[in-house]
Amino acid sequence: MTKKTDKKPAEKKPKIDFEEKYLRAAADLQNVRRRADADRATLPTIGKIALFEALLPTIDTAEMATKNPPKKPTEWEKGAIAILGGIFPVLEKMGFEKIAETGVEINPEIHEVLIADGDGKKVVEILQTGWRLGDRVVRAAKVKAG
Q1: pTM of the model
Q2: CB proximity list for 123: less than 8 A, separation 6 or greater
Q3: What CATH superfamily classification does 96-146 receive?
Q4: Which bin fits 95, alpha (ψ -120 to 50), beta or left (φ > 0)?
Q5: What is the arrangement of strands in the sheet containing 141-145, beginning at the earlier edge strand?
Q6: Which of 31, 77, 137, 143 is the most exposed place for a label (fewest CB within 10 A)?
Q7: Do 115 and 128 meet the contact criterion of CB atoms below 8 Å apart?
Q8: How far, in Å, CA of 57 to CA of 131, rounded?
Q9: Distance, CA of 63 to CA of 77 (rounded, Å)
Q10: Where are the domains of the chain?
């Protein structure tokens, strides 16, 4: 008995265009480098904001303590004022700006209205200071509008 073997013709491998693969890989590498450069540029800002957000409750507490000082401040109140006097210049040097203007039009990008009197189109009181770093709002100012 003779075995009959069915031999299929060898399948042709698809032609690989190495030049096209090289160009795609080079473009991918360029995109990765571009994204890494962009990430490197934003890392200092992200770090600043993270540190600032960690300090923010302490800054808010010190600001509240100094908002309505008594006629004769105690040593503790003088200390809170001195702390704020030392922190704010450092924050400004790092690029942080207070959002604390009254009498300006309400801007929903930088103001969070908690109380509204009358037509509520202008900021009449700052309830909690807002902060920004460059174009980025870190925290909107909590305001009373009137």
Answers
A1: 0.65
A2: 101, 102, 103, 104, 105, 106, 111, 141, 143, 144, 145
A3: Head domain of nucleotide exchange factor GrpE (2.30.22.10)
A4: left
A5: 111-116, 141-145, 123-128
A6: 31
A7: no
A8: 13
A9: 10
A10: 19-94, 96-146
